[in-house]
TrEMBL record:
InterPro entries named among the record's database cross-references: P-loop_NTPase
Entry superkingdom: Bacteria
SUPFAM superfamilies: P-loop containing nucleoside triphosphate hydrolases
Protein name: AAA domain (Dynein-related subfamily)
Coiled coil spans: 130-214
Assigned keywords, A-Z: Coiled coil
Length: 625
């Protein structure tokens, strides 16, 4: 019986075996190998029993390691083991991963340091290359400077030689001219005295002939004056009699200064209020349908968008101008619209004359000598006096047509009326009449002007254009017949209802239309010297545009979104165009790009014509009005 303790057996016998390199980290396979090689141990010959015991203890230890691993895996795979492992990791996470993080950080740090080292080496190489290139550049600059100095010296030497040669040639030429001049002087001195005598004799002869002619002329003038005095005496007597009679007529007071009423009472018959003002969109559609049918009866087959544009513009604008070539039917269209609306005498036409210079030519003037008002033969004085008693809920609107209004400058004869377009205007005209100093102009009196595009007319001033809607009219009509009931009659709406029907109600404008209008405004107002003259769309004009778009969009619901903005730009914005220079042409081309992006075909077509004609006229651009 062996009484040696297990730990002593392991110390004395197993330790020597385990020192061998093949058995470090002993496993079950290693233990088998150890058993087969037990005779290799130094103590195996004398103590086989204790050595076998040592092997048994080692085998037992290896079996325990395997059992412990299995138990540990079972524990980790159990729910309780997983919870304990998670709890342990949560509590000891920082300590558990500290070593791993430090190693990871060291690896990253070493990688970064390696990259820094490589970059420093590369930086050093690049700096060296830059220094070499800089040195080469300095050498090149020095070489270039030397070449330039050498070339300059050669050029100066060449120019100096050429100048010296030219100077020498000029001196030779001067010498030759002096020789010729000396010869001429010698030759001239031989004939000088004789020529002086001949010249003096000729001058005296001319003076004698002039005095003789003057004497004859004075005698003739004397005879003419005597005849003129006799004739003038008779004419003065006749002129005195005429002026005296005229003065007597002008200073004789007129007792009855009668103002006639132009309007007939029967013209107000059949007027009816708008019944469906609450559903204003349908009321507008019905009115446009009726206007379209009525115009077609007069052989004016305008497209629907043209009819909407004309009606809305007339109702909203104080001044509407139709511009076009002579004979395009502008005047007749206005008169047909007056007939369609059954205005009668409330559609009044004034043919403008070429010599008008002040308001007295269109309205009249007060004669203080005779104490009477001399109204112009236009009928405007009587018309304005006739509308003073108008009740806008009981009468029709008034369309006042100024035919060929630019034969004379409207800024001169029509200046007192231009303020009517301002919302702040009192809508009153000063007459100079002591009894009727002011005449009010109601909202329902609309002014329409027709202008021709030729060389015989006066251009419209910016002030007039800023207050007007200018519609370009080419006289082209729609060939497609109107497909509506031909029995539709245009209703006779009172002036107030007619204006309210086509007035804006504050409805929202689509955002894409607002953005397009802002793009047009910014393009024209951009302060850039490379784009030439700039234009500012006034607050008054922007409000007109938005009011027009709101109403016309509600009628043209089946048309393109930008159709109303297209018409508004063509008649409110494009008339502002007036400038010259290539830079201004670039601004107009930028504007045309915006118009094309938003499919505004009407305005783009007008602008293209302006640009084309302007380029042909040495970059002088002007709206045709």
């Amino acid at each position: 019986m062996d009484i040696m303790q297990d730990d002593r057996i392991l110390k004395d016998y197993a330790s020597e075996l385990l020192k061998a390199k093949p058995f470090n980290g002993l496993t079950s396979k290693g233990l088998e190998l150890l058993k087969s090689s037990v005779n290799m141990a130094s103590k195996s010959k004398h103590n086989k029993t204790r050595l076998a015991r040592a092997l048994f203890l080692l085998n037992k230890s290896v079996d325990w390691q395997q059992e412990r691993t299995e138990l540990f895996n079972q524990l980790l795979n159990s729910e309780q083991g997983k919870e304990q492992l998670d709890e342990f990791l949560n509590k000891n996470e920082e300590d558990f991963f500290t070593k791993y993080r430090i190693e990871k950080f060291n690896i990253v740090e070493n990688t970064i340091n390696d990259e820094i080292t490589k970059l420093k080496i590369k930086e050093s190489s690049l700096r060296s290359t830059i220094r070499e290139l800089g040195k080469e550049a300095d050498d090149k600059r020095k070489e270039q400077a030397e070449m330039e100095a050498e070339y300059r010296a050669k050029a100066e030497d060449k120019v100096r030689k050429e100048l010296e040669q030219e100077k020498e040639e000029l001196q030779q030429e001067v010498s030759r001219i002096k020789e010729k001049l000396f010869k001429f002087k010698e030759e001239y001195n031989q004939y000088k005295n004789l020529n002086d005598l001949i010249e003096k004799n000729k001058k005296l002869s001319d003076e004698h002939a002039g005095l003789t002619s003057l004497n004859i002329g004075l005698n003739n003038t004397k005879d003419d004056l005597e005849k003129t005095i006799v004739s003038a005496s008779t004419q003065l007597t006749e002129e005195y009699v005429r002026v005296h009679s005229l003065f007597k007529a002008m200073t004789s007071p007129i007792k009855n200064n009668v103002i006639s009423n132009l309007f007939k009472e029967e013209e107000s018959e059949g007027i009816s209020r708008v019944n469906n003002m609450d559903s204003i969109h349908s009321a507008r559609q019905e009115y446009i349908d009726a206007m379209e049918v009525t115009l077609s009866k007069y052989d004016r087959n305008l497209s629907r968008e043209q009819v909407v544009n004309i009606v809305v513009t007339l109702a909203q604008s104080q001044f509407t101008i139709l511009s076009g070539l002579p004979g395009s039917g502008k005047t007749s269209l206005v008169k047909i619209i007056g007939k369609a609306m059954q205005l009668g005498s409330r559609q009044h036409t004034i043919p403008v004359a070429k010599s008008w210079t002040s308001m007295k030519d269109i309205l009249g003037y007060y004669n203080g000598l005779s104490g009477s008002y001399h109204s112009a033969p236009t009928g405007l004085w009587d018309l304005l006096n006739s509308v003073q008693s108008d009740d806008s809920e009981k009468v029709l609107p008034v369309l006042l047509l100024l035919d060929e209004m630019n034969l004379s400058s409207p800024e001169h004869y029509f200046s007192s009326f231009l303020d009517l377009a301002d919302n702040e205007s009192k809508r009153e005209i000063f007459t100079g009449h002591p009894d009727i100093e002011l005449l009010s102009v109601p909202d329902h009196v609309k002014f329409i002007g027709t202008i021709n595009q030729d060389e015989t007319v006066q251009p419209l001033s910016p002030r007039m254009l800023d207050r007007s809607a200018v519609i370009l009219f080419d006289g082209v009509t729609n060939n497609t017949p109107v497909s509506k009931d031909s029995n539709i009659r245009l209703p006779k709406y009172p002036a107030k209802d007619w204006i309210d029907l086509f007035s804006s109600n504050g409805e929202s404008i689509p955002e894409n239309i607002k953005i397009a209008l802002e793009n047009v405004s910014n393009c024209l107002s951009e302060n850039n010297i490379e784009l030439g003259q700039r234009h500012i769309i006034s607050h008054r004009k922007k409000k007109k545009i938005l009011d027009y778009i709101e109403v016309s969009n509600s009628i043209l619901i089946d048309f393109d979104d930008f159709i109303s903005l297209d018409h508004a730009i063509s008649q409110y914005v494009l008339p502002m165009i007036s400038g010259y220079g290539e830079a201004y042409g670039r601004r107009l081309n930028n504007l045309n790009e915006i118009l094309q992006i938003h499919s505004m075909k009407l305005s783009s077509g007008i602008l293209k014509d302006i640009i084309m004609i302007g380029e042909q006229n040495l970059y002088s651009y002007k709206f045709p009005a």
